[in-house]
Amino acid sequence: TTDTDNQVNRGHKTTKTGRGGREAKQRKKDKKDGTTKDRHNPRAFSVSNIVRTQRNIQRNLDRAQKKEYVPLSDRRAARVEAGPPPLVAVVGPPGVGKSTLIRSLVKMYSNHNLTNPTGPITVCTSKTRRITLLECPNTPTAMLDVAKIADLVLLCVDAKFGFEMESFEFLNMMQTHGFPKVMGVFTHLDQFRTMKNLRKTKKMLKHRFWTEIYDGAKMFYFSGCVNGKYLKHEVKQLTLLLGRVKYRPLVWRNTHPYLVVDRHEDITHPSKIEEEGREKCARSVAFYGYVRGTNLKEGMKVHLIGVGDYGMAEVSALPDPCPVFDKEKDSQTLNKKDTKLYAPLSNVGAVSFDKDAVYIDIGRANYTKKENLDLPRKENDDDNNEDGDGSSSSSSEEEEEYDSDAPAGLLKSLQDVKEGVDQKMKYSSLRLFKGSKAVKAGGTNDDEDVEGAAMQVALKKQRRPVQDVYELADSFRRRYGDNDDYDDDDKNSGSESSGSDSEESDSDDDDSNKSENEDGDSDDGSQSDSQEGSSSDSDDEESAGGEGEKQSWKTNIAQEAARNYLRREKSFANLQQLVYGTPGGGVGSNLVSDEDGKNNNDVGSDGEDDSDSDDEFFKLRDNGKKSLATSKIGNEGASGTSDDIQLGENDSSRKIPNAQSGMAFDMNVWLEEGEDCLIESIRDKFVTGNWDNGQDDNGEEKFDEFEDLEAGERYGPNGEVIEDSDDDEVPEGMTDAELREFNAKKKASQKSEFDEDYDESKKGNVGKAGDEQAENEYVEALKREKEARLKRNQEEFGVDGETSRLRYEGFRQGIYCRVRIDGVPPEFVESFDPTMPTVIGGLTPQETERGLIRCRFKKHRWHKKILKCNDPLVFSIGWRRFQSIPVFSTEDENGRFRYLKYTPEHMHCQATFYGPQIPPNTGVLAIQRLTGNIPGFRISATGVVLELDASSKVVKKLKLVGTPTKIFKNTAFVSGMFNSDLEVSRFEGASIRTVSGLRGQVKKSIREGQPGTFRATFEDKILLSDIVFCRTWVPVEIKKYYNPVTSLLCKSGADGWRAMKPKAQLHVETETPIEVNPDSIYKPIERKERTFNKLRVPKAVEAALPYSSKHKDETKKKKKSYASKRAVVMEAAEKKKYTFVQAVNTIRNEKRTKRKEKNAERRLEKSKEVAKQDEKLEASRKARKRQHHRTEGKIDAARERKRLRG
User: Fold this and answer.
1) In this predicted structure, what is the pLDDT of residue 451?
2) Which distant-in-sequence residues (6+ apart) come within 8 Å of 633 by Cβ?
3) Please, are residues 528 and 577 in contact by the beta-carbon 8 Å criterion?
4) Which terminus of the chain, N or C, has fewer Cβ atoms within 10 Å?
């Protein structure tokens, strides 16, 4: 068994015969012996076809060259999560499925069902990405706005119907205003009956789409809908590409900030609206949105598209309503519950943030009262019987009552409200001064006062602890820096503060704000002030005493939270705020509130009456007279030293952030005197210090060490030579030639090192590589340089310097901002349409001025008619849409801009019009009419801005015509061209011409004849019948007409905007015939043929001429000649011949006549046959034409129905 187990079977041999087998055996043997030879066959790896390989290489190089582009400076955020969400616009004609696509995408991303997607919809797509979806309405104004702000366009097309005119119009708008990424979405594919027709349609749509965009543009096909949404796997393909798409920076958005408004609020005070009227009061509107483009700075002029130009009254940053994934959280995945969706105009989301408020929409949440519940009584009866006492059940029910401070308790208390705000205003009261009688909103009778007091006591039972917390935090902020021992004050004034809070919560929001001054004493916790109130106040305190004792721990918690917040705020030292003070702080104000003044007067003054402080609401701050210890309220004994000084506003920079108290300072160090004191150590740092310390005792300037790069030596401050390290030491025993060679090598090495460092800094560590490598890595080097610059900026400002960074840089892109604009017309609020996009675009200082704009202009080839000069056009340039009157011209070879009455058919021309100035190379788009049912292509022309100028250079040709009165050889008197001698003197030396082409010049005016007659000289003698004209050029005046398209101020959009109409449109609408100028009618030219007299040569002269030059004209003879008179007598032979010729001619004429008759009959029969065939062909042609027109009519009717459905 052992031999069997260790047996090794021999493997089968691979039979190899022929040349291959022998070579394999030889290679195996050579490998075993170690005598294998390397192959050196130069043609073993060569190309088989040289021409094909050359073509492939050239093709690859051409493709690589096409991919190269000039890198643009991308000013967007380096990180995707730091920038704003890209705007994905869903564009297409009505009825193609735009809303369905948005609902499907929102469902895929957030698992949320949108019923009616309206306005911008921001949704998180991954941990670091989010997008904003926006549906574009089918109006020219909305398409223009979306083309300016879209980062990615989903062009929806009905595949069953095909491309429509709106799609091509939007593509032209994008080409003018910067072409973003475009993807095609083809819907209604489930309406095709056969796959053959579907494949054919897909191929046709793909070729057409690629022709308009570019070859290889992404396309998605959506077959059908299930439950109002597209199929999940088809939407998934679109979302995968949306997460990987890269956006190329566009020039206009790379230089201008803008906001796509998510929502807006009218924050105008209601009293102002009532005073001025709802239809006339200018509104203050707050707009909310992400900053896009460049940084938005305060004080910048903005253009609210569709409204006008405004200045931003206030800009502030808000928390991001749709933040991306937070890395600090424990969760590492973007679950459905963590997915964020922000669509304020689509009624999605319950919380909206404002600068000073948070709005919570509770929807339809209701809490059912216990008396309305149908609870089973059996268990309660059993429990009562077993316990023997029903008090336990009643006590348990009381314990289940919601706390009045909890949100559930607040909502439940709101359900019990029986009266509205206007009714509660009847019982509200206002106390102007402390100790004075409260003024009630009701009547003046005592009975009414008693009833109002009773109602007021009843209303005080409804507490609003949320408002109390806000007021407590505000009181802590007001005391920040003025009161340090607030712990003892809060402990001593527990019940008083609760009572005052309950008192303040009785009135409405407006009343609580008005009565903040007199109730502020109880917030500070002073017992003396609370005791000096009226008897009603003490009663209120007694009535709320029990409730205050029960909830004292909650009040302490709020105070402790506010105290901890202030401590954390003081722990961070910000150098900018230490030097210049905090924004809105007390550094820039000399006024104090009545609350602070009373605190100071109560303690610091001796026996002064408190009523003196009621005379004025504000008083000047008394700086430097009272110490901080004496200004504190409620302190027994001075907690600070005598050296503590209350600083004024100019001394606020000497704040000690780490001190125990916010405003206590140790000034002993700064008040010391002597040469070594602290003030003397920094005296030379200011302008008034001694700046001559850079000199020694002898008056000579002191220098630091420096190095001579040419000689390679280092010198000290006194000129001594400093020896280098061991590596740079000069070897001893070197001759002068060797020393020079050594220094030259050292200098060359230093120069090479400097060049390498310079190249690395400029090319991104590609200095040692070749030119090709440096060129290939140029874009990466720019990206690394941008990242390094952003990192330096972040390190410079730091985490705590966000306020300073916003002050210097402005509001960066990606920050969610609140922009308040004052003076907005009331029509904007009244006629607001949430489906229309609202955009706020930033303007440069140049763009706020107006002037003449000259641009290169070309009529669109799809527009039916040519454009006429001085007809109004609606221009879309930059952020603006406005109507102006253009003047067309063309540039001649000599640089003259010659006036054109119409635009050329297939050529560019120059257009000059009046409007807001815009940077050159900005796209221009012109539309003739924005309103009305316009068949065909609506875009009239496109162009680009060339030049901005204050005056026009367009000239128009003018011909001055005159006639000669007298002719003297080459001189003639011309009249009718000018009206006075002054005009002649103005045109002296001007060139003139005759119709025959003779050139001349104006000389001097003459006194003979009518006024304006002048003498002129010509190349040759002219005739009296010649017409003399002078060609001149007259400057054309540009009409300064500017009418902004205020589509957002009209309820019907652009249809309600009133624009200037062309003259031809007015003729059609009013049915007015066109005025005809008789001089402008072209008449047939009738020229009489001129007859010249014969040239008569005298006989004496003719006799002297040679024979060849003499006249050969024969005179007409009056009598007949002899040949015509004589008789002809024929002989017999001649007579026979003559007779025979006549017979032959007769036979020939007879045959010709018969042949003509036969041909006529044959033509008649042929014409009858042709007529029958033509009749049949005409009948079939009419049938085909009738069918064609019927089909076209059905298509037009379907388009009209689709357009009306909208």
Assistant:
1) 47
2) 483, 489, 524, 525, 526, 599, 602, 603
3) no
4) N
pLDDT tens digit sequence for 596-650? 444 444 434 444 444 444 444 444 444 443 333 333 333 443 333 344 444 444 4
- What burial class does residue 64 get, using C-beta atoms within 10 Å of its C-beta: 0-12 exposed, 13-18 middle, 19+ buried? exposed
- Report whether 122 contacts 262 (CB < 8 A): yes
CB 813 within 8 A of CB 299: no
Buried b (16+ CB within 10 A) or exposed e, 994-1003: beeebebebe
Cα-based distances in Å from 274 to 514, 629, 822, 835: 20, 49, 17, 29
1025, burial (CB in 10 Å: exposed 0-12, middle 13-18, buried 19+): exposed
On the CB side of 483, CA atoms within 13 Å amount to 24
What Cα–Cα distance (Å) separates residue 572 from each residue in 559, 564, 566, 656, 1076? Answer: 21, 13, 11, 12, 83
Tokens of 181: 């990424």
Query: In whole angstroms, what is the distance from residue 539 CA to residue 453 CA?
Result: 11
839 contacts 305 by C-beta, under 8 angstroms: yes
Q: Are 844 and 256 in contact (CB under 8 A)?
A: yes
* Cβ-based neighbours of 8, under 8 Å, separated by 6 or more: none
> In the beta sheet, which residues pair with residue 706?
715
Alpha-carbon gap, residue 545 to 532, rounded angstroms: 18
CA atoms of 296 and 252, how far apart (whole Å)? 15
What are the φ and ψ backbone dihedral angles of 94, each rounded to 5 degrees?
Answer: -65, 145
Quick check: pTM over 0.85? no
Tokens describing residue 204: 């046709």
Q: pLDDT of 649-706, one tens digit each?
A: 444 444 444 444 444 456 677 777 777 777 777 777 776 666 655 454 444 444 555 5
Chain centre to alpha carbon of residue 745: 58
Maximum Cα interatomic distance, the chain, rounded to a whole number of Å: 179
Give the E-state strand segments of 169-307 in sequence order.
181-187, 219-221, 225-226, 229-230, 258-260, 263-266, 283-292, 301-304
Hey, is 614 helix, strand or coil?
helix
866 by Cβ neighbours in 10 Å (0-12 / 13-18 / 19+) ranks as middle
